[in-house]
Amino acid sequence: MEPRTITLHDCQFSTYMYEEEIIARIHMLAEQLEQDYAGKNPLFLAVLNGSFMFTADLMKRINMPCEISFIRMSSYQDMQSTGNVREVLGLTENIEGRDVVVIEDIVDTGHTVNALLQQLNEKQPASIEIITLLMKPECLQHQLDVKYVAKSIPNDFVVGYGLDYNGLGRNLRDIYKIVS
Ligand code: HPA
Ligand code: MG
């Protein structure tokens, strides 16, 4: 496929991962989840805003009893982590004794997920795992065991399929990488 280039704000981005590849990876992860959580009733906690598209496509492929809820927790401004991780917002479920699966769009420094896990663990769930669409292993600054990863990528800024650049790009069906 011919690469496509787009401009968002002041930056140029080029196609990096096409929708077909994303969906294929999601189907594999969904099968894995169905095996790992057979006979359980997992609670998926999707971290907004970035995970909305990933969450929708993932949940459409999960054929077992499960619950889904949305929380919010952002640490990102512009293109670099501020390190200012906020509190979990919007968690109304009682997660004590539940098998929780946190759905993320991207894990890079791990600051956000690390803080989230600390706060969730205080509420004594039976288990917690993380599923993420993208992971930047080069950036990771915490001891995190991310069990489900659709794709590991180098440390390049990406947008699309839920991920934004200063608010733009979340609606794109493919993932784009910044043109260096
Ligand atoms: N793109 C968009 N949002 C992000 C990224 C990225 O590469 N890394 C962390 N948040
Ligand atoms: Mg963002």
UniProtKB/TrEMBL annotation:
Reactions listed under catalytic activity: IMP + diphosphate = hypoxanthine + 5-phospho-alpha-D-ribose 1-diphosphate; GMP + diphosphate = guanine + 5-phospho-alpha-D-ribose 1-diphosphate
Keywords: Cytoplasm, Glycosyltransferase, Magnesium, Metal-binding, Nucleotide-binding, Purine salvage, Transferase
InterPro entries linked to this entry: HGPRT, Hxn_phspho_trans, PRTase-like, PRTase_dom
Residues annotated as domain Phosphoribosyltransferase: 20-165
Subcellular location(s) per record: Cytoplasm
Annotated GO MF terms: glycosyltransferase activity
Primary subcellular site in the record, as a coarse category: cytoplasm
Cofactor requirements of the protein: Mg(2+)
Documented EC number(s): 2.4.2.8
Domain of life of the native organism: Bacteria
Pathway info: Purine metabolism; IMP biosynthesis via salvage pathway; IMP from hypoxanthine: step 1/1
Enzyme class: transferase
Family stated for the protein in its record: Belongs to the purine/pyrimidine phosphoribosyltransferase family.
This protein's name: Hypoxanthine phosphoribosyltransferase
Species this protein is from: Pontibacter aquaedesilientis
Gene encoding the protein: hpt
